[in-house]
Amino acid sequence: MTTVNLFRLGVLTSGGDAPGMNAAIRAITLKGLSAGFEIVGINAGYNGIFNLDTQILSAQSVDNIIQRGGTLLKTARCSQLREEDGPRLAAEKLTQLKLDALIIIGGDGSFRGAVKLAEFWPKPIIGIPGTIDNDINGTDQTIGFWTAIDTALDSIDKIRDTADAFERIFVVEVMGRDCGFIAMESGIACGAEQIICHELIEDEETYLAQLYNAILHAVTWRQTQSYVIVIAEHSLSICSAELAKRIADFTGVDTKSAILGYIQRGGAPVAMDRVLATQLGISAVKAVCEGKTGLMIGMKNNEMVEIPFAQTGLKNTHNQDLIKRLKHFNFDLTD
Ligand SMILES: Nc1ncnc2c1ncn2[C@@H]1O[C@H](COP(=O)(O)OP(=O)(O)OP(=O)(O)O)[C@@H](O)[C@H]1O
Ligand SMILES: O=P(O)(O)OC[C@H]1O[C@](O)(CO)[C@@H](O)[C@@H]1O
Which residues are catalytic? Predict the structure, then answer.
């Protein structure tokens, strides 16, 4: 009896989980199965390669997951791949797993890992942008971004209620790693009086002095009954609680801080993330079928685009877009 060697397509999720990763896994699995592939899910990001920890994905395994947050395959940050011999060892393990191609769902860090891996593993590697941060060059959105915005927005709206009732100032910290997109979009959507992200700050001391004065002006003239400041994590050298304390000292108004934290990564993906993940997943499998490699599939102006991994790192142009949008929406209450 002859055995037919099926084309084995590996898929993994890596870096921070993002709502919609499951939708991408589902799309890759269904499209891959229809292309006649065997779909090998690699568990817990790159760690699953080192540990040979895999599961075969069938249509049944991805049934009813499109609406679920988290990731069926689990995710992780994998220090071993960053070690000097890590990529070579990982390539050996991929060969042991008899994989013919690999699709990576993750952020720009995961794609940097993919570039290292490709130095030792000659088969197709395709990426899909999956991170709540939207900090990837070459795609307008990343999977999970819009869900994170909605989750943050839901919480900030609630904070607004209590801020209004007490006529307080609130500093609300959102995620984003080193990128202000979550702060920007959730801040615009909740009508924040201020949105702070490092992209806007040239000199922190000057920036803060202007901020304190703008707040004092607004509260003195009662331009608003509550004052909500949405700040991206890592924007300033001081933490959000310290910023709130300094604002209170300067203005004399009771000021509280709240860090939204990991709730921003959870929950059912919104429609936009499900659709984006499905489209990207299908296109990633198509790219594999065409023998392409070293690329992230992204979405730019509603068109699928292929961006070499080396160009997916956050670029200044990305920051410029953000600054332009923020300048448009950030009302200066001292005007
Ligand atoms: N320079 C690198 N060399 C080798 N591997 C890397 C490198 N950078 C990142 N990786 C691998 O990719 C994994 C994920 O990267 P990282 O933690 O930066 O998250 P990410 O993919 O950017 O996602 P998120 O934006 O959601 O945090 C790392 O844990 C590591 O295994
Ligand atoms: O889960 P960890 O490793 O603490 O990472 C937190 C980081 O991951 C993200 O949620 C996604 O990259 C960032 O916004 C945040 O800074």
Answer: 133
- Nearest-CA residue for ligand 2 atom 5 is 16
Instruction: List C-alpha distances in Å: 76 to 14, 79, 80, 198.
Output: 6, 9, 11, 27
Whether 102 contacts 32, CB under 8 Å: no
Over the stretch 62-82, which tens digit does the pLDDT of each residue have?
A: 999 999 999 999 999 999 999
**What does CATH list as the number for 145-265?**
3.40.50.460
Given the structure tokens 């593993």, which residue do they identify? Answer: 121
CATH 3.40.50.1980 is held by the domain 8-144+269-313 = no
Atom of ligand 1 nearest to the CA of 107: 21
Helices 316-329, 181-190: crossing angle, 10 deg rounding: 20
Ligand 1 centre to CA of 15 (Å) is 6
Residue whose Cα lies nearest atom 30 of ligand 1: it is 78
> Any idea where the domains of the chain sit in the sequence?
8-144+269-313, 145-265
pLDDT of residue 95: 98
Nearest alpha-carbon partner for 184 in 135, 136, 231: 231
What are 151-205's pLDDT values in tens digits? 999 999 999 999 999 999 999 999 999 999 999 999 999 999 999 999 989 999 9
